[in-house]
């Protein structure tokens, strides 16, 4: 690791130098080496810089904390990308508060400029799971990098679907790269490193403190041309990401849901406020700039699923099912068939892999 990069990390460790102060210092002096060479009178010119922080900068010595950080970086084969590097993500560089440096496992590529973030609740319904998987697969097959936060629920499903479709995905963590959170995502993290990147602005051993997650959300939206919220209760971190995306002048998309579903309160509210309603990948693609619209039709690897050949009675029941679970009593009432006949048709459709039975005698289409 170069001495220059070590100084970028060192400045991040100086007590009192938070992210705002770090950016002010870089804007004034150009790089950390010049910051550490600065005179007291020069540092006093930085708005908001306290005497204590100035003393910490002037008296900073390379010590055990930096050595431990460098050792962790080396052990995990982490790359440090600073805002002065050509590898720094183009989209992220153009938000008003880009992180000065990123810790990266895997590889950031130029093609990741074409990115969409997919976010939502940690406790999705079957509907949310199906829609997340369908949208993320479709984006990946069109060469769009799928960005999310690797949290439980919608985030993890979005990453997994993009990787399964052979695409790229980027996870933005609210903790350091030495920490795996949630712990069950260890395998997913390894896959991400092979087919994309796992990134953080936090020190290697930073714990997943709840205050970190709103901070990292600006990176999720900042990496992306737009943010899709699949399912989100009225109070949800995904809604924070959507708000930040608007502040960054990025597109905001929302998947509509049942008015009786708590998980759709947030997304339905976003649509009321002007978010683009999303039913399929084409709804997202048509809002992207320039020549990206050409990816909407005839995308590589994207195949239209043909309607199955069914008897009239089977087709009638199948047509009543979509991507939101329906109770057997509702299907019986809407089809007009006897309850026994509907039960038999549903069993047949399930054997053919066209539908799934969920708890409580409810049914949903398979992808």
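-> sequence recovered:
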């Amino acid at each position: 690791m170069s001495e220059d990069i070590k100084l970028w990390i060192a400045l991040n460790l100086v007590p009192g130098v938070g992210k705002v102060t770090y950016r002010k210092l870089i804007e004034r002096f150009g790089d950390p080496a010049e910051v550490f060479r600065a005179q007291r009178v020069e540092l006093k010119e930085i708005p908001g810089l306290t005497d204590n922080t100035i003393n910490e900068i002037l008296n900073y010595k390379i010590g055990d904390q930096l050595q431990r950080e460098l050792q962790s970086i080396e052990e995990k084969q982490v790359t440090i990308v600073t805002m002065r590097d050509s590898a720094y993500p183009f989209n992220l560089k153009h938000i008003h508060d880009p992180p000065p440096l990123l810790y990266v496992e895997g590889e950031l590529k130029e093609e990741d400029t074409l990115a969409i973030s997919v976010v939502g609740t940690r406790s999705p319904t079957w509907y949310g799971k199906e829609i997340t998987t369908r949208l993320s697969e479709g984006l990946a097959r069109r060469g769009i990098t799928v960005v999310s936060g690797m949290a439980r629920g919608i985030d993890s499903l979005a990453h997994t679907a993009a990787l399964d479709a052979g695409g790229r995905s980027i996870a933005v963590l609210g903790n350091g790269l030495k920490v795996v959170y949630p712990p069950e995502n260890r395998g997913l993290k390894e896959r991400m490193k092979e087919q994309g990147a796992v990134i953080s602005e936090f020190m290697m051993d930073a714990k997943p403190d709840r205050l970190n997650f709103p901070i990292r959300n600006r990176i999720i939206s900042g990496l992306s041309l737009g943010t899709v919220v699949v399912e989100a209760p009225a109070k949800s971190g995904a809604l924070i990401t959507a708000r930040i995306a608007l502040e960054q002048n990025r597109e905001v998309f929302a998947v509509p849901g049942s008015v009786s579903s708590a998980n759709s309160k947030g997304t339905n509210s976003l649509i009321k406020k002007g978010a683009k309603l999303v039913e399929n990948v084409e709804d997202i693609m048509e809002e992207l700039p320039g020549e990206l619209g050409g990816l909407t039709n005839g995308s590589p690897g994207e195949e239209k699923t043909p309607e199955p050949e069914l008897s009239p009675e089977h087709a009638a029941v199948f047509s009543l099912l979509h991507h939101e679970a329906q109770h057997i009593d509702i299907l019986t009432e809407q089809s007009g068939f006897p309850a026994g006949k509907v039960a038999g048709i549903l069993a047949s459709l399930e054997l053919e892999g066209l539908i799934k039975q969920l708890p409580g005698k409810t049914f949903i289409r398979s992808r």
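The mean pLDDT is 91.
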